[in-house]
Amino acid sequence: MTVGAAYVIIVEQILKSKGYTKLKMQIGNGDIPKCEQIPGMQLDYYRFKASITEDIQEANLVVSHAGAGSCLEVLEARKPLVVVINQQLMDNHQLELAEQLHADGHLFYSSCSNLGTTLELMDLNKLKPFPAGNGKDFVDFLDSMLGFNKFL
């Protein structure tokens, strides 16, 4: 996704109106944001990092693509999450995942074109914590599917 300067300014203004003071973006191979700084709002970006775990831990709000790994990492870190759907994907699993996690009350989702509106209207107090995973249940399920529980 290419981030236009005007769009970044709009998002910054909305976030600032909600009390946020810093916007950090991972831009990958995208265009470097070229926009004026909004007073009281720090804009920072980087292309890639080996891990964004530290950024997630420091965040008050995460806006991410709607990939399953990204969603789970942020939700397990107990951070408020807005996911942006890639509408160009075939078999749009991102949309299915985002719709379900939203229906369960764990996140907000948006397309690129309505991200500003989603940020304006979101009420983080309505979000429910994502339940902690139970690794034993998953292991037991795999064992039963692979027939390992027959040997116990």
Automatic annotation (TrEMBL):
It is found in: Endoplasmic reticulum. The keyword ATP-binding does not apply. Its EC number is 2.4.1.141. This is UDP-N-acetylglucosamine transferase subunit ALG13. One of its GO terms (biological process) is dolichol-linked oligosaccharide biosynthetic process. GO terms for cellular component: endoplasmic reticulum. Residues 15-133 form the Glycosyl transferase family 28 C-terminal domain. The keyword Glycosyltransferase applies. Signal peptide: none annotated. GO terms for molecular function: N-acetylglucosaminyldiphosphodolichol N-acetylglucosaminyltransferase activity. Keywords: Endoplasmic reticulum, Glycosyltransferase, Transferase. It comes from Timema douglasi (Walking stick). Coiled coil: none annotated. It is an enzyme of class 2 (transferase). Belongs to the glycosyltransferase 28 family. InterPro entries: Alg13-like, Glyco_trans_28_C. Gene3D superfamilies: Glycogen Phosphorylase B.
